[in-house]
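Protocol step 4 of 5: obtain the predicted structure for the target chain.
Materials: sequence only (see below). No template structures provided, no constraints applied. The aim of this step is simply to have a reference model before the mutagenesis design in step 5. Sequence pasted as it appears in the construct record:
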Amino acid sequence: MINKLTFILILLLFTDPEAYCAPEIVPNALPEIDNAVTPQLKDKSIANDAQAGKNNPLEPIAFKYTVLKMSTLLIECHPHPLDPLSAAEITLTSRIISKSPSLPISSFVFNIITLKEPKKSDLLPFFLSNSLPPPKSIPRKSFSIIVERGSGKGFEVITNLDTEEVESFTPIPHGLRPPINPEDMIYAEEVLRRDPEVQRRCAEAGYPNISLVNADPWSPGYIVDRLDNPAFQSKRLIQLYLYGKNHEDDNFYGNSFVIY
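Step 4 output (structure tokens):
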């Protein structure tokens, strides 16, 4: 049975704690931290004895990480500049963009929220010196794609998570579309299965039970002849390849078919 302290020490053997996470105790939180410390650590007086590190340099670090695990509100962890966005950073991005007064659109959905990687030139000096950037020396930024409701127009948004500001808002050029996401795929298949004409044609192809028809959604890509066609303007296009099952447990990829 591995206890919490043992797990932390094992983690420290494989991870440089100062390189990937620089814990900082939030001011005025010491009473709460003292209450959060485990009895084992209190017995070693790590929380109150500043000399503990002289006996075992790992103990203060273990104490920091114990508190980090027990109360994330009391610790600020600085990610590596190339670390993916955390759940908290994704939520923060959504809040900043949704409340930004600089956006010219008011109703939209998020298509992508991901890390806006720093320039290679900013990281190269640290790479060449085999060191890591000091915490917060390189701003954390996010890259988002949002889609306006109704028009289907896409926009790219750069957000500074340190200053909590939208830095840029760029319309996606004419002819280009945001990538399809899982919600688009699920909805496209639902629309296809509800369509009476699709049901009729699937029945003619040998699949009268529409629940045994599976659709594999793909982005249609760059369609030149439809760029300026009014029939396709402001519409989100998805192409679907059809597969049928002969029974519920059948492998539908073995039964592709085309409807005309």
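Step 4 remarks: The chain has three domains: 4-76, 87-171, 182-257. The chain has ten helices and nine strands.
Proceed to step 5.
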